[in-house]
Amino acid sequence: MARLPYIEPEDADPVTAKVYEDATARFEMVLNIFKITGNAPEIAQPMWEIYFNILQEGPTLTWLEKELLILKSTKMGDCLYCVTQHEVVSSRLGVSHEKQQDIVGVEYRKSEHYTPAEAAILDLCGHVVLDPEQIPAEVWTRVKQHYNDAQIVEIVATIGAYLQVSKFGDSLGVELEPVWHGHQPVLFAVEPPTSKASQGHLDHFLAQAPAS
Amino acid sequence: MPITATIDTPTAEVEETYAKAEAHFGQVPNFVKVLGNNPAFCKSLTDFMIQALGEGRIPWAFKELIILKTLRATGAYYSYGAHEKLALELGNSPEKIGDTNHSLWRNSPHFTDGERAVFALIEQTAVDPNDVGDEIWDPLHVNYDNGQLLEIASVINTFINIGRMGDTLGVSDPTLFSKPVA
């Protein structure tokens, strides 16, 4: 159960209404994570600009590369909300279920579905999520073989932003919208959540009737 | 030294963002100069930081304590010293700032029940954001309205992001504001 009310489009102030309009143009619907930020429009507007930057091609990375980082970072945080949605988004961008499955743990390192560049940024992602203080020099060497400074900023910004929004949504109890009901988890089928609470959220989600 | 170049002289694409940063902070923080490698993200992240670091639905002085506690709870180092300076300058006593450490805040006389409720949220968010229960949220709803709670959650999670990014990119900002804030 969400801990704050969702501000529905008909109740939104003009600033929030514009954010909803932009979100609908991009995502075909106003997700609950947007609706909860309607409680403070002055925060919602600049916050979502960061995500509008991420969820598109470019400016320096492909959207697919960013989706891999999103899946990796939010899976490590047991975020059912993010993982579910980005399994679908990344599929639409051409990421196969086999490739999605290999993102769990360090399977991607030996997976035929991943390039050395992708494996390098997923290694970096794992360290950023766990402890940036422990990023080995060889990881940076590999990342820098494939990516320039502008891209490195975008890589780190994508990981950081999804740590931010996943913990934000989960701590506020933001629920998956009914449209996702019936989705068969890919990443959590490979490795269940380590958080008992997240496992409870997953069990509840799987018990919902599929969206018609 | 940061892992990327530091863009000291702004390109045309980030000139406006640097000007905004200078107007707000009195200088362009090194974090912004590293973001300057990627103009789109430099703009959106700087705009968001500017929004966060000021008076809001909750006092800026309290936001700084939230930031300090968040950085501590998530093991982040970036800008910790700068936020200690800001917390002090905005009127928090050294004793109160010190009592944000580990569990000292729980029994410290320097905090209100509302402030303690926020610190409990920060610690649980750092441990497992999927498991923030009624025992955390009930006291929050007693002490704050919905807009304030959204801002509190936003400050916590924004600085989870900023702390991670700053540490990953190897940025140091011992001072964020070069102009008086109080």
Describe the protein's architecture and organization:
The complex is a heterodimer of chains A (212) and B (182). Chain A is 61% helix and 0% strand. By secondary structure, chain A is an all-alpha fold. Chain A folds into 2 domains: 1-54, no CATH class; 61-206, AhpD-like (Up-down Bundle). In chain A, α4 packs parallel to α7 and α7 packs across α9 (149-171). Chain A is globular and about 50 Å long. The mean pLDDT of chain A is 96. With 182 residues, chain B is mainly α. Chain B folds into 2 domains: 15-52, no CATH class; 60-169, AhpD-like (Up-down Bundle). Helices cover 62% and strands 0% of the residues of chain B. Chain B has helices spanning 15-25, 30-35, 39-52, 60-73, 80-89, 94-98, 104-107, 113-127, 134-143, 146-169. In chain B, α4 (60-73) packs parallel to α8, α4 crosses α10 and α8 (113-127) packs antiparallel against α9. The longest helix of chain B has 24 residues, at 146-169. The mean pLDDT of chain B is 98. At the A-B interface, α3, α9 and α11 of A face α3, α8 and α10 of B.
The CATH superfamily of the largest domain in chain A is identified as: AhpD-like
User: Approximately how much helix is present in the residues of chain A?
Assistant: 55-70%
What's the pLDDT, averaged over the residues of chain B?
98
In CATH, the homologous superfamily of the largest domain in chain B goes by the name: AhpD-like
Rg measurement of chain A, Å: 17 Å
Task: Tell me what the CATH architecture of the largest domain in chain A is.
Answer: Up-down Bundle
Helix/strand layout:
The complex is a heterodimer of chains A (212) and B (182).
Chain A: H1 14-27, H2 32-37, H3 41-54, H4 63-76, H5 80-92, H6 97-101, H7 116-130, H8 137-146, H9 149-171, H10 187-190, H11 196-206
Helix pairs in contact in A: 1-3, 4-5, 4-7, 4-9, 7-8, 7-9
Chain B: H1 15-25, H2 30-35, H3 39-52, H4 60-73, H5 80-89, H6 94-98, H7 104-107, H8 113-127, H9 134-143, H10 146-169
Helix pairs in contact in B: 1-3, 4-5, 4-8, 4-10, 8-9
